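does this look right to u?? heme C version
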Amino acid sequence: MTSSTRILALALLPALVAACGEPDYLPVEELIKPESCESCHPQHFEEWSGSMHAYAADDPVFLAMNARGQEETDGELGDFCVQCHAPMAVRTGATTDGLNLDDVPQHLKGVTCYFCHSVVAVEGTHNNPLTLADDGVMRGGIRDPVSNDGHRMAYSPLHDRESTESSALCGSCHDIVTPAGVAIERTFREWKESVFAREDIPGAHLSCGKCHMIGDREGTVADYDGVPLRKPKDHSFPGVDVALTPWPEKPAQLAGIERDLFGAVNPILCPDSSSSTLGFIYSLDNVFAGHMLPSGAAQDRRAWVEFIAYDDRDQIIFSSGVVADGQAVAEVAAQDPQLWQIRDYGLDESGDIAHMFWDVRQVKSELLPPAVTNDPSDPAFYHAVEKAYILAQNPARVTARMHMRPIGLDVIDDLIASGHLEAKYRDEIVTFTLTGTELEWRLADHGQNCVDRTSQ
Ligand code: HEC
Ligand code: HEC
Ligand code: HEC
Ligand code: HEC
Ligand code: HEC
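got this back:
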């Protein structure tokens, strides 16, 4: 049976069950709509509605890239992109290539409640190998859920943040191997190689959900009679990306992103006394991302360091990574030989930069790695990445900080130039400053000493 005929067949089940005196559960054709959950789970709905999971098939950059990919590959891309960005639309047969998404009902777009909560098996490590039960049962991490007339329920280790298996549910969608065999997004494999995947080290294991679905406040998880107090898990999934069009919950998304980025990277700034020329070393330690930083679409992200040195009259004597609003980092890079970019480079057959997935044959990766051990005596314990800046003159003051953009303006310009993206979206691309990485060294106060967050 195809998944669409299964959904139809199963839609009849609740009616049969109701005849035997069980509650009149929502039929599957209602359960697949996120709006059906709103009356009983208003908070989960609100958080999810602002998430990039909800936005995944509405993002104009996604629509533009998919459309261009279909053209440039003569349709060979098929459902490759939509299998993750609109999995319910693919599985119900509402789309085969994502080119008709304007006509697909909204409830089938994005990564929906029904999709995640119906997963029964993970049959691979990448490209969304998730099997759905389509049996009307909503799976979650609660072992004693209160019976209700919305739906049946079951405990599932794939949905329980305390279990390692749960990372496979998230991770197998957050790991992309292109049709050409290039591992272009690798969040899941990066996590598996990190200390956070280690169940053998006491206290080390943190699943994707432990970091990305915070559940530290008490409340009910449903507006329904007789439900106890529990710890509802945040469903807003902030990362780096933000909606470019009017979309619910934007302030909450931005606040979530700034919160997660704040503590993620630990900086140190040192005068380089070992070097024969004048120099400074800025070091960045990815302390709290359970994978590389940035991760995922790291070929599209732009993360870079802004480093400025001043003389004793506070005139700038050296700068690197000073990027104006609306300016592409790629443009600055051309005249800034010491620029530190923290990103992946997608390369085509001839080794040139490629912006589009399907052209990429190789990835050159320059990211901040996560911790692989929590044993300080292990040489691998220290995993910070350093950059030495060479100066021509002794500074009186030096400042350094890291910035990140969800997508490079060079990529956006490429999509505008090919006629696939409207130019107005360019102004919507935000630039985040990771304020936790901001450091200032002053000769008068610090001399030959390093500065870190505690010495500010
Ligand atoms: C008529 C009310 C109602 C509707 C509609 C409803 N739910 Fe629920 N749901 C509940 C109640 C009640 C619980 C149990 C809460 C508890 O025990 O604290 C629950 C629990 C859950 C759980 C946890 C299951 C577990 O064992 O961990 C999930 C997941 C869930 N619902 C998903 C959904 C989704 C997705 C939708 C929309 C398709 C939905 N619900 C619609 C009332 C409803
Ligand atoms: C069906 C595939 C799929 C599953 C399963 C899935 N995701 Fe996602 N996720 C996506 C897609 C697609 C996006 C990006 C949408 C966009 O930006 O257009 C995304 C976005 C995100 C983001 C925001 C990224 C950003 O840069 O803004 C986070 C965080 C995230 N997912 C975490 C998780 C976690 C944690 C889980 C498991 C509980 C999970 N995802 C399960 C497909 C999936
Ligand atoms: C130890 C905590 C931790 C764990 C475990 C963790 N993450 Fe993250 N993740 C973070 C932090 C902090 C950020 C923000 C830094 C950033 O955006 O790069 C982040 C960012 C992300 C982003 C946005 C990345 C980007 O640059 O576009 C995605 C997507 C994501 N995580 C998915 C996952 C998935 C999937 C898993 C499990 C396989 C996972 N995370 C495990 C802490 C964690
Ligand atoms: C990306 C996958 C994903 C999506 C999309 C998603 N959920 Fe969840 N949800 C989870 C996971 C994983 C858990 C369990 C976390 C745990 O218990 O450790 C969960 C837990 C829940 C629970 C149990 C209570 C709680 O907070 O633990 C409810 C209810 C729920 N989700 C409803 C919804 C509704 C309603 C939507 C859509 C509006 C939705 N979910 C969308 C992954 C998802
Ligand atoms: C295996 C699942 C999967 C496939 C296949 C996939 N994506 Fe994604 N996509 C994701 C996830 C997960 C994210 C979020 C990554 C992150 O935040 O780091 C994402 C993010 C994005 C983004 C927003 C981030 C950015 O780059 O600005 C765009 C645009 C995008 N994908 C386009 C595409 C296109 C076009 C295709 C097909 C050529 C595609 N995706 C195929 C899972 C997938």
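Confidence is low (pLDDT under 50) at residues 1-5, 14-19. idk if thats expected tbh
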